[in-house]
Amino acid sequence: YVESFSAYARQFLDRMPRPHADAIEDLPPAVAVEQRNPVRTSRSTVGTMTELTDHLKLLFAKAAALYCSGCDERVHHETPAHVADAIEALDSGTRVTLTFPLPSAGLPWTDQVAGLRAAGFTRILDPRTGRPREAAELTDAPDGEDTLVVLDRVVAGKVDRSRLLDSAEQGFRLGRGRVLVRPESGAARPFSEGRHCPRCDLSFREPVANLFSFNSPLGACAECKGFGRTIDMDPHLVVPDESLSLDKGAIRPWTTPRTRGQRAAVREMAAERGIPLHVPWRDLHEEDQHAVLEGADGFSGVRGWMRGLERKSYKLRVRVLLARYRTYVRCWRCEGTRRVDEALLWRLGGRHVHAWETLPIGSMLTEVRALELPAAIEEVAAILREAITARLEYLDEVGLSYLTLDRSTRTLSGGEFQRVNLATALGAALVNTLYVLDEPSVGLHPRDTHRLLAILGKLRDRGNTLVVVEHDPDTMAAADHVIDLGPGAGEHGGEVLYAGPLAGLRDDPRSLTARFLRGEERVVDTGGERREPTGALTIRDCSGHNLQGVDLTLPTGCVVAIVGVSGSGKSTLVTETLFPAVQRTIGQSTAEALAHSGLEGAEVFKRADLVDQSAIGRTPRSNPATYCGAMLHLRTLLARTETAKKLGLRPKSFSFNTRGGRCPACEGTGVEVLEMQFLADVQVPCEECNGRRFKAEVLMARYRGRDVNGILDLPVDEALRFLDPDVAAAELDRPAALAAGKARAALVPLADVGLGYLRLGQSATTLSGGEAQRLKLAVHLRHARGKRGGRAKRTLFVFDEPTTGLHLQDVRVLLGCLGRLADAGHTVVVVEHHMSVVAAADHVVELGPGGGSEGGRIVALGSPEEIAAGDTATAPFLAKELRR
Q1: 364 forms bridges with which residues in the sheet?
Q2: SS3 723
Q3: For 507-520, what is each residue's pLDDT tens digit?
Q4: Cα–Cα dist 330/592, whole Å
Q5: Does residue 228 contact residue 338 with C-beta atoms inside 8 Å?
Q6: Given this model, what pLDDT does residue 113 score?
Q7: Helix (H, G, I), strand (E, B) or coil at 874
Q8: Tens digit of pLDDT for each residue in 627-667?
Q9: Which residues pair with residue 830 across a beta bridge?
């Protein structure tokens, strides 16, 4: 395989670091299904990722019906047989005139008549009387674009079909594929041989697959280029405070000295139209607000002013200014369908291609199965229907029936992304392949775990090998072979403690996993008292996405768990509605929340923070030391050493983010990124610094025998011992001791959340989703310390599945951290499926009862014991956890 690459590609592969292994035998082709979602482009959707969009566009090109944009009638490919059938269907004895249109060629009428006579035609249809008339009797061409030439006159029921076919065929040939059948009574009926609507005289081109693709120039909307969104002015950013009046600066971009002219212009326009300048913006009439924003009576408005600035967008300050007051909105031309209008004229089962993509996968599967096609088309489309049905079935089986094909891939959670990947793998029908999956049960309700296991079983039964990194006991029980690593994490792990059937693992004395499986260790003691709420936070009538007018009231000062099956609306309610609404209310952000009618109780919070599974950095420069703030103090510490003073090194010399001390070749990343032909980019160690990031003279400065690179190579636990302020004071001076103490204080929360094994300089791009989330939690723990009831420091914390990537022991540590936040007076809202977290919560809200359109309602709320006693999807699993 490698030898098939070009010599250019092979030279870089030889420079890649080798795996730390003596030998790897019998390795099949491998597919890694990551826990995180790496997709960033909005062009990628669930449909493109699963290839369903490709199959759908082919099916449309073969089987879709065209409907005219003018009359909304179906446009057929009509033949002489259709003309004959229409005449034979008339009442017997009806006189019928067949005509074809003769377009004006710009010739004198006498020349046109001579041409008709030469072709054997002498009569035309008089547009005034509707009767045939000799063309030679007219001195000028009839009014109208085309001249209707009489082709034949017949009597329905008394003419041979062969004559009708011959006449219609001749008419199609001479009339550019168009024929008009005109009975003596009733309306005339036009026929068209091509993709042409004879009623509206509109022509359409033949369909090709790329016409239905928003990733093709042929099918993409010209305005938004297939993205479905465009950048436009956001009125909420232009007028952030609606309590202000025009003369008090309601129009935020016009409050600077540079915009005196715009303020004078709006006052002049307001005087002419009678718009009051001293009335709050919210109290102005809608048409007055529209005049200010959009312009009127020669006044360009805010929008016109922005369009004028766009001509100067080559200036950085102008681009920054425009970015402050614009946002992405649905494209006005395609209305979010991403496609040209012509693509939406084609329908399959009564729906255009975008309508199919907006159906939930479960509904789409039902519709595809019930789709009826003509026999001739069915034979051609059978293979496509089979492939589409199979992929939809796989998505449904992994619990993603609530997703739609137009859902942007970058908006999927890590668990959803993995399951879409699994469904794609099943659809590809690969065999003899190694699949490496990182926690595929993430984001999956316990009720749906058996669906995932069934999918994994299908992949295995096809002859594939599956290596699953997982903490879920049900997934362990379904495995054919279990490998337990330990005994601890980081420097304390790395040993294979057990390999074999699960039954043998339960008896292993060294394994921490075994102690939890045997019941010797428990994640949480549910016998403790629940916290009493300090107040209430209420959001009303939430109706974003699949939410059905939900009213949610949460107790503050407590740990609240939001549960429900996948797709029930948990993330929509909490992370897309409640969280941005609170941020907007307290002035922390201007991000728009999804639809709701009111928010009460948010004024007690100083901040609102979301801790989700997103990466903390996208470059190798980002690491735990920089993220938690310890690096700043480590640089100060190293700059106080004797060697640094002699070499004239300052704190910034020990930074790999600024010029001076970092390696100039790799710019402080330690690696060189090489773009490969038809392969992913390759990262190889920098040849100049050998991956050490800094210049040689910077690495000469050492503290306690370690240079900056050596300190960054320390695990957090070891670094806490290394950074002893008393030792720093004895070896260096008081400022060095202060720097060591501050660096140590920044690292303590990392150890508190179970990340003591992480190395300070480990690239953030290599952290798992769970590690990244706990690193964020550690930073919040450091900044959110305070006494319970300290109103000035209260924070709303929203955690999106914080148990991702955590062993049961780590979950126990996490719950201790969440509890400390709540004990300090903060409110912790956790969207979670892990029953141990739900059991430890003070209050539980369950959404459901199903996913997608079947969810979006609150089906239960109360203490964990009250939820467990109910009749919901979560109840039996929570009851089992409480008994355990």
Answers
A1: none
A2: coil
A3: 888 899 999 888 88
A4: 14
A5: yes
A6: 75
A7: coil
A8: 999 999 999 999 999 999 999 999 999 998 888 889 999 88
A9: 561, 799
CA–CA separation, 250 and 206 (whole Å):
53
The pair of three-digit structure tokens given for residue 15, joined into one six-digit string: 């420079």
Return the bridge partners of 495, or none: 486
Closest CA to 10 of 677, 691, 670: 677
**3-class secondary-structure state, position 220:** strand
Chain segment 63-121, per-residue pLDDT in tens: 999 999 989 988 887 888 888 988 888 888 888 888 888 766 666 777 777 777 777 78
Nearest to 348 by CA among 63, 139, 118, 708: 63
Closest residue by Cα to residue 658 from 690, 691, 683, 695: 695
d(CA 778, CA 750): 5
Provide the H-helix boundaries in 438-545. 449-461, 473-478, 502-506, 512-518
Query: Rounded distance, CA 563 to CA 845, Å?
Result: 6
- Determine contact, residues 441/470, Cβ cutoff 8 Å: yes
Cross-strand bridge partners of residue 299: 296
Contact of 219 with 210, CB cutoff 8 Å: yes
In three-state form (DSSP H/G/I as H, E/B as E, the rest C), the secondary structure along 623-648 is: CHHHHHCHHHHHHHHHHCCHHHHHHC
837-855 exposure pattern, b = at least 16 Cβ within 10 A, e = fewer: bbbbbbbbbbbbbbbbebb
Q: Which two tokens stand for residue 562?
A: 């939001």
| CB atoms closer than 10 angstroms to residue 246 | 23
Are 802 and 830 spatial neighbours (Cβ–Cβ below 8 Å)?
yes
Q: Which two tokens stand for residue 17?
A: 């670091």
Structure tokens at 604: 């007690």
> For strand 607-611 and strand 795-800, is the pairing parallel, antiparallel, or unpaired?
parallel
Terminal-to-terminal C-alpha distance of the chain? 52
Instruction: Name the nearest CA neighbour of 793 among 770, 826, 768.
Output: 826
R_g over Cα of the chain: 36
CA pair distance 757, 487, nearest whole angstrom: 13
For the CA atoms of 75, 80, 84, 86, the dihedral, rounded to the nearest 10 degrees, stands at 10
Distance, in Å, from the CA atom of 829 to the CA atom of 825, rounded to the nearest integer, reads 13
Q: What is the dihedral of CA 402, 404, 407, 411, to 10 degrees?
A: 10
Pairing state between β 132-134 and 123-125: antiparallel
Q: Which phi and psi (to 5°) does residue 496 adopt?
A: -85, 105
Q: Rounded to an integer, what distance in angstroms lies between the CA atom of residue 163 and that of residue 422? A: 61
pLDDT score, position 528: 64
Phi/psi-derived region of residue 492, left when phi > 0, alpha when psi is between -120 and 50, beta in every other case: alpha
Q: 674 is written with which tokens?
A: 């090489």
Task: Record the tokens describing residue 365, joined without a space.
Answer: 């599967």
Task: Please identify which residue in the block is written with the tokens 């936070």.
Answer: 537
CA distances from 499 to 19, 486, 515, 882 (A): 22, 12, 16, 30
Q: Which of 668, 649, 665, 644 is nearest to 657 (CA)?
A: 668
CA distance 512 to 808: 9
Could you say which DSSP state residue 43 is in? T
10 Å CB burial of residue 867 (0-12, 13-18, 19+) is: buried
The counts of H helices and E strands in the chain are 33, 29
